[in-house]
Protein 1
Amino acid sequence: MGNEIVVGLHFYQPPREASHPSLRQISTDPENKNWTEIIELECYKPLAEEGILNKASFDIYQSLLLQLEKIDPATAKIYQKSMRENGIGEAFIHPILPDLSTQDKQIVISAGSNRFREITGQSPKIFWPPETAIDTETLCVLAENGYEAFICAPEQIVQSDGSSSDNQPTQIALPTGQNIIAIPFDRSISSKLAFDGKTNADRFSDDFIKPKQDQKTGKTIVAWTDAETFGHHFKNGDKFLDYLLNSSLPSIGLYPVSINRYLDSMPQIKKGKIVERSAWSCSHGDLVRWNNSCDCSWGYDSSWKRPFTESLEKNNQEISEILQRHLGSNYPLKVSSQFYELYAHPERVNSPEKALIAAKISALIARTSCATFFATPNVSGKINLLYAYQSILYLSDSGLTSSANVLKDKLFKDLSKINYPGNQETALSTLLKMISL
Ligand SMILES: [Zn+2]
């Protein structure tokens, strides 16, 4: 080989609105915009129509695909059709997996692969972890669910022989006796694809990709970046990508290949270990960006993050205990197998058991990582509050009104104690008032 490149795109948007019928009119965006609709026109639709998904590999979160199905069903179909050859698996929703309990990891990972199977007729083999956040337990759950490999950043993998992990597939031994392959992307090409200008694809491949072509070891180059880069962050970035894949790369002798084909024909693999609790977008260790303070908050006071995530996790755990009592210890299986149906079709939540399952699904969506990715909760923290509230509404719908009231009081008490930065208090308390917390 040595003449192949995997260009991977990560497609993701958080849910924009709640699914419970009584909450649907509430917008979570500070300016009342539907960003998924905006990005769909700038990026998702042109990428699909230009045939990019036939050449690029991609992961698309179900929380986005469900919105596309409503906004533009024809475009959603193109994504679904392309998933079979070029798609990889995901966790249905986007929480920091190492921060979830074992059962919750199982629920979201198997809900994602169930849906992938329904769409493509086959099981996903490669996984994109939300924020590429990993720990050993997450990898064990992935292997149990049939995954053979996952994508991550090179900084997250340490080679046994001390060599660089950049673009180096690596075998990770798990405590269960199984193995899983880490596929760290090429850091410099991935970063250039994300942040460099999108005006001249020929120059881009000559300057940045050609020097990396390693004819001697015959290594396939793997680059992966946010899909929204092409058309949303960079106007006409979709056309740049189209030209790069179809003309510039072939002209330097590099041909785009599916990540799934690459896995099937992977050459000898080195051995190594993961950096526990690491991710691609925070280098400060222990996944601190999402649950405490670090320099990723550009000097802003991010002390709100810890109590914010703790209160949502406490609510999520209390709901797990209720499901355990009422549905038994195999409740995770019941939740994962009905995750898509009850989330995408809330009208089918028509029994106390289904309302309990919908409560758990909502409490998990309230753990979506975007709320604490940014320095302030105003960017997307409302989504989490809305879903936490929805979990309590569904609990009440299941007939457990007094438990629901207890949880509502606890959540409100916890959330009101938090010292939100700047004028967030107003934004968040408006939402709390709207949902009568
Ligand atoms: Zn950080």
Protein 2
Amino acid sequence: MKLFHLSDLHIGKYLNGYSLKENQESILSQIVFLAQKEHPDAIAICGDIYDKSAPSGEAYGIFDRFLQELSEIRPKIPVLIIAGNHDSPERLAYASSFLEKHRIHISVFPPQKREEYLKKITLEDEYGPVAFYLLPFLKPGYVRPLFEEGLIDGYESAVREVLDREQIDLSIRNVILSHQFYAGSKEGPKTCESETAMIMAGGLDRVDASVLDRFDYAALGHLHGAQRCGGKNARYCGSPCKYSVSEELHRKAVTMVTLKEKGKAAEVDFLPLYAPRDVRRVRGTLEEVLAAAGAGGQAAENKGSDPAGAVCHDYVSVTITQEGEPYRIRERLEERYDHLLELRFDNERTRRRLREEGGEMPLLRPLEAFRRFFEAVRREQLSEAEERIMERLIQETKEEGL
Ligand SMILES: [Mn+2]
């Protein structure tokens, strides 16, 4: 059984004020083309379909067209979709019973009543059935009413308990679609700047990847860099487009998974995707950076016959390394880079300022940041009771999903 594993489309996303529409439309039509070519048995889209919980009409239109084009492929390919933390469950669920008729299965809410279970879709191939469990993004508060008081004390127990109450037939192959922050016990996952602040600031949302061991494959969404997670059968496929400069070196691709008979490891291939406009960094003196506009990038174009007039359409973060600030620097850069994301300086002056300010600001866990703030203001340490109150407040804020 062949599966396309996708996640984190973030349709409607803007990068420093620039719409990424063109890149997203191009990437989605490449995915349709690859689906026509490879004809997978299912397409799993593991959360964060839209970038905002209230997507624009334009964003709806883009995803609608994508589903429409996929549904025209014959024989029909089932599409399995779960909600991510960026999606509004109600909005994503719109028309879902109608879509079900076209073999598009959407799950937006985890079980909330005792008689409810995860949405399960079973497909067949020459080795027998494969059960797909659709676990939408969940916060502990969503599922607390399902269990005895006190059993759910965070994200990890919430996910574990929800999976434990499913009747999973371990004699057949089972696949889960999930959108949470999973991490192996040994190494932490690689994160990047376009993911939520939730990942960067905390650790409370971390779920040990061993809860996924019961599945033959875990198709994960949430992290934007493609990577294995914990055991060998769990993967993040990553976002199909670059959504921050920190993803400069990512190679975006469709993760294609082939499941063989029960007990055999899934095979994984990557089908590369190419955005018309790259997201990248350029560094050097102003003259070097201006000259590089015509040289690098997929989206450079010559204006007339003058190579010095080439304009680069990539989304670039420019770092200028010379001393002093050249005259009209931003205007001169914008003449040659029409999607300038940011302008930074890295020279003796900025380095000195950084030293004087005591270096870069450390990234602290919320409780530690508050502890320092409290000490600075009150000139005394947090008491144990105060610390517990603060801890609970932070946990509750997290669950509200900032
Ligand atoms: Mn995401």
